[in-house]
Structure prediction request, 640 residues.
Amino acid sequence: MNPDTIGVDLGGSHLRVALVDCTGTIGHDVRLETPKDGWRAVLTALSDGITDVAAAGRADGIAIGAVGVGVAALVDDDGVARYAPNLHGLIDVPLRSELASSVGLPVAVDNDANVAARGELAHGAARGARHALVLTLGTGIGGGIILDGHVYRGAHGFAAEVGHWQFDPHGRMCACGEPGHWEAWASGTALGAMARDAVERGDAPSVLARAGGDAHAVTGLHVGEAATEGAPDALAILGEYADYVALGFAGLTDTLDTEIIVVSGGLVELGDVLLGPVRDRFHAHLEGARHRPPVPIVAAALGEHAGVIGAAVLARDVLA
Amino acid sequence: MNPDTIGVDLGGSHLRVALVDCTGTIGHDVRLETPKDGWRAVLTALSDGITDVAAAGRADGIAIGAVGVGVAALVDDDGVARYAPNLHGLIDVPLRSELASSVGLPVAVDNDANVAARGELAHGAARGARHALVLTLGTGIGGGIILDGHVYRGAHGFAAEVGHWQFDPHGRMCACGEPGHWEAWASGTALGAMARDAVERGDAPSVLARAGGDAHAVTGLHVGEAATEGAPDALAILGEYADYVALGFAGLTDTLDTEIIVVSGGLVELGDVLLGPVRDRFHAHLEGARHRPPVPIVAAALGEHAGVIGAAVLARDVLA
Prediction:
């Protein structure tokens, strides 16, 4: 029987450690705030969490084979986190070797979006795909590229940083410090910024009402709520946002010719209120769309669990 | 001994048929204008050219194994040209099967940029690369993506259409009918358009002089000539153009993490006058550039011969 593996989802605000079996089902599960006082503290928290989950599993008679970690960073082929602009500037931390020596299990580390793509490929909406994109519309845009049935990491492990293509040089500043990247127009964060701009122009009364009349409190979720109930102002904002999303999906599909696009992130809970206009605009923007097989755009299946499940799937590679 | 193969480079204005040996050396060689009176005429011209070259080769005692064709079209896995916006609207023409039955040799067909990438991979500047981009700055931007040592064609054979990413929604119209694609800013054609704009503003006297004082006759080559001699107005235009080129190279590298970028097209003859600023701007735009291994940006080695040599390399696959 295949041993279970432990998946770790290491984010800027929270970290999660979970035992996952070979069907992708989550067992013992620990969630913690990510320590803010340096990398030694983070490593200690990770190590303690893994040790606790492993002990709980073993107490139930479960064999544990390895640990996988997904982290919001550029991760090289040696499991060293090279660069993490959104994670306290993590630079050149040898996560894999440090963790392996402290927990006494084999450890694999990869970028969080690559790991989420592994989860969707093994147990979610990308199951059975040979060529797929798994894109997360969140604080930024996370990308996982599946080619020939495997997550594609590139020559140095840095592939699928899909948010940083120049999209509009006159537009919003990206978190990375360059102007007008796609991520600055099509992330979940960008939808909130668009909504606040619309509120400021007086164009989004129903969205403002959802935020209790506080223009600064408006987020993308308020747009989604109002749009779901059919408010025309919210639908207009969501339609414009969907076009930005679709323009990026089309550019990536022109480049990679994948057979399916899996979309994750909190906004996906809006379902076809968001994905409907994204599909329409994608078809309009894709080069030669009428001459290609259709490319389905579907919601991710694993939701917030994609991180730990995908990390546990990553860990299986160590055992293979 | 490996038999020679025949490479065909089928463009909108000219077609070329050449015998190529296993070292990438060109032997018998025929160049023709591409017939403008429909696809039957094109097929007949191709078939006649191939038959002539094959006969000349056989008369020299050369064994001929197969034919490869590169064409400016989306080509599916059955060798059917599905869509070719720049080639008289070629749609759904079964090039492979039609040619194979008329010339009596196995035939392989692929997109012209993919074929050029094969040529550079086998006999040119991408030799030995596992992950590479081969990008042609010409009328449009042609892209060939090499992953794990092979040309990547995607799920349906349509990958590497890298020019059609939204780059500036307020910008120039792309030939495909959408506004502001990268190709509309960074193709060879785009450099000519930028130069004519500069001439119109009175900002490019040395470039205008190269075109004999005729503003409408200005092309990118005049910019290149003047820049090579150090004319500040031409260097300024070329610097702006280099930034557009570099922004796209950076976006593609963020997505694909290739280890080298090979640049082809007539402008590459400018050498470091163009590639120097492209390299500088690329490094400035690439996400986390200081934390990655360097990505060399080099000139293609095969020049105008990449098409026939790459097509001949493609033909070898049929024999394998």
